[in-house]
Amino acid sequence: MRFRHPPLMEHQYVERQTGRARTEKLIADRLLNQIYSTNREKPGRLFDILTSPRISKLLGFVSFDLTLRAGWRHDPDLQRNLGIDWSEALDPPEDMRTLRDVFERRIRYWECRPMESDPRAVVSPADARALLGSFRDTSCLVLKEKFFHFTELLGLDKTRWLDAFARGDYAVFRLTPDKYHYNHAPVTGRVVDIYEIPGAYHSCNPGAVVAAVTPYSKNKRVVTILDTDVDGGTRAGLVAMIEIVALMIGDIVQCYSDEGYDDPRSVRKGMLLKRGRPKSLYRPGSSTDVLLFQPHRVRFSMDLLENMRRPGASSRFSEGFGRPLVETDLRVRSTIGMALDRGAELRAASRDPMGPS
To answer: In DSSP terms, which residues pair with 244 in a beta bridge?
Structure first.
């Protein structure tokens, strides 16, 4: 008798613009579920090979760098599967020769991704699905303690930054392969540190994230620390922006631009990054951004907090007692919270029964 796998649990998110719960169509879901099976107590050689940089780049080439067939722009099935709104694109679809061109497309973000004018607004760094939380509750992101551990994410040797963000808040932004793949600065601030941590290329499929052991802590990532308490800054204290590669992502290209996509520059210490401007580009595939905030320096938007506990929505991410945590689908440059001034931080810390960090 042929063995049949049990049906996989649906994964839903809340669409912020409409408030509706949507079911995500996960790419290669059953295959990834087999690779990341919870029965895999000891990772084998095949698993190590599949999540290696070399194989990830090869998969990326096969999936994204082969020339698209003639007439692809008129194929309704392909257009529907890509799910791209070409009216937003800066470059015409006729210029897209490969799927890499499609996924690395630029958009007229200044028109189709409006941004709140209040300088205290902290904005989404990407078109992504987001979850929010606080390290005052735990040292791990509370998703079956599988997403990441705080100290591993920043680097075990980064004592200065580990101390700065201890018991602070976080926001996780999961990009799916169809998303716009530029990351934008979530705040205005000066770069005080930027460094790369080598690692593997695990999938960001929700099932894989839950099944594997802290994959976000193990993937290759770039950490940028911004001081926003500077002239013209967002006034949210130190903010860490962590860009995490995943399956088929070969690189994170740092390409900050003050205007549009003009004159892109590599991000360096001492640079002032302006909120909402393009900062970097993920190569095609799935990927994740994580923002870390110091304690009591940001107040998250209420609708995002409420959506996480949306009744009736099915999610593969959960907190204690299996309670689902539901993501919200966001657009880049949309507000996720407001910066709190230093006085508010001190007042909140004085009310915290655990005391200030």
So the answer is: 221, 288
